[in-house]
């Protein structure tokens, strides 16, 4: 069976068009022209038994053992992003036209529809930002895990559209369904989804022009207050987004945050162990990272507030970060005073 394009949705990130596509086909026989830099599969936690009905089983029969890949994971992010990533595929299995395997194990943390957004957020650091990649997946968690295909397609479309609109470097996300009858029903569902989504929904712009977006864990609220005070010291009318003060009662908090982080002149991220444990903070950091990558001027300024017990990611160390450990208010004030705000 070859890949047959059934439907697609184009997403603009402001500079280029990215695509979510629905295909009918077999992920065990990916044609070379559809090579996937990352193939996403799903499983029960630590369960890679190659059953007769699962993609993991079909891959095993085609010469690629997910169980063997799991014994030597390149990165294990199941505790924060619900997936692990394999080392590059080599040897005889490379004939499958797959660069790496990401295994989505949502039941470690919750229900699959609610966690696919974490999957895309978590993939960001492993995608080569110098080129756009192709990612392929089935309808995750709809095989042996038994989740409804329509529910998972909706969750995947919403999460993928959200991140592609923010510049996630995926040229095309290929969602592949092998059953022709199921595939035809999914076409109609995708058509309905396309009617409800607009670019305004995907990449909102704030009606309030913020100068600074403060990204922080509630645990570090005192540091955020200090940062806000320092931002306004000696500056005229600096408008700071602090989620505790800037979101109107009854508003959609996620929309407000997306809008503010998309339009603020700079983003300050107050880094601590609690920050890196928060999915919301991680999403804000990755959105700011995407903006920073595309901006001619730096917009992301991390402040290292409390030691996380390991080395910061190299990409953070290379982009204007200020070392204010351990909760050094004097260093914080100095870092704020040097920010490029007029």
Task: Give the strand tally.
Answer: 13
If you compute it from the alpha carbons, what radius of gyration comes out, rounded to the nearest whole angstrom?
21 Å
Distance between the termini: 60 Å
Spans of 5+ residues with little confidence (pLDDT < 50)? Answer: 248-252
Can you tell me the CATH superfamily of the largest domain? Leucine Aminopeptidase, subunit E, domain 1
How many strands, what sense, and barrel or not for the largest sheet? Answer: 8 strands, mixed
Name the structural class: alpha/beta
| Strand content bin | 15-25%
Could you describe the 3D structure shown?
This protein is α/β, with parallel strands linked by helices and 342 residues long. The protein folds into two domains: 4-196, Leucine Aminopeptidase, subunit E, domain 1, CATH 3.40.220.10; 212-337, Toll/interleukin-1 receptor homology (TIR) domain (Rossmann fold, 3-Layer(aba) Sandwich), CATH 3.40.50.10140. It is 37% helix and 20% strand. The chain is built from 14 helices and 13 strands. The strands form two sheets. It has an eight-stranded mixed beta sheet with strand order 1-2-8-7-3-6-5-4. Strands 10-9-11-12-13 form a five-stranded parallel beta sheet. A hairpin with a 4-residue loop joins strand 1 (4-12) and strand 2 (17-24). Helix 5 (149-164) packs across helix 6 and helix 8 (221-232) crosses helix 14 (329-337). The radius of gyration is 21 Å and the shape is elongated. The termini are far apart. The relative contact order is 0.12.
């Amino acid at each position: 069976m070859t890949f047959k394009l059934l439907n697609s949705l184009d997403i603009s990130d402001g500079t280029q068009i990215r695509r979510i596509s629905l295909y009918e086909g077999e992920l065990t026989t990916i044609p070379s022209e559809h090579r996937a830099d990352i193939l996403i599969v799903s499983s029960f936690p630590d369960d890679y038994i190659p059953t007769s009905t699962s993609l993991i089983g079909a891959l095993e029969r085609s010469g690629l053992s997910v169980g063997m890949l799991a014994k030597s994971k390149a990165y294990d992010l199941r505790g924060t992003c619900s997936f692990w990533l394999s080392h590059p595929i080599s040897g005889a299995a490379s004939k499958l036209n797959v660069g790496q395997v990401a295994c989505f194990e949502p039941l470690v943390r919750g229900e699959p529809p609610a966690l696919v957004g974490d999957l895309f957020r978590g993939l960001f650091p492993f995608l080569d930002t110098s080129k756009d990649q192709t990612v392929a997946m089935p309808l995750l968690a709809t095989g042996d895990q038994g989740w409804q295909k329509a529910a998972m397609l909706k969750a995947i479309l919403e999460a993928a559209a959200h991140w592609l609109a923010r510049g996630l470097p995926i040229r095309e996300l290929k969602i592949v369904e092998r059953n022709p009858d199921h595939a035809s029903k999914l076409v109609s569902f995708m058509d309905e989804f396309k009617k409800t989504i607009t670019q305004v929904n995907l990449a909102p712009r704030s009606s309030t022009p913020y100068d600074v977006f403060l990204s922080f864990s509630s645990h570090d609220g005192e540091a955020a207050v200090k940062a806000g005070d320092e931002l306004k010291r000696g500056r005229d009318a600096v408008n700071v987004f602090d989620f505790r003060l800037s979101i109107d009662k009854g508003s959609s908090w996620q929309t407000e945050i997306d809008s503010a982080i998309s339009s603020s002149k700079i983003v300050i991220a107050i880094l601590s162990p609690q920050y890196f444990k928060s999915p919301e903070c991680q999403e804000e950091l990755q959105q700011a990272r995407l903006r920073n990558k595309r901006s001619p001027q730096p917009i992301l300024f991390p402040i290292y507030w409390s030691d996380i017990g390991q080395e910061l990611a190299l990409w953070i160390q290379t982009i204007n970060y200020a070392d204010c450990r351990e909760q050094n208010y004097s260093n914080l004030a100095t870092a704020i005073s040097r920010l490029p705000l007029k």
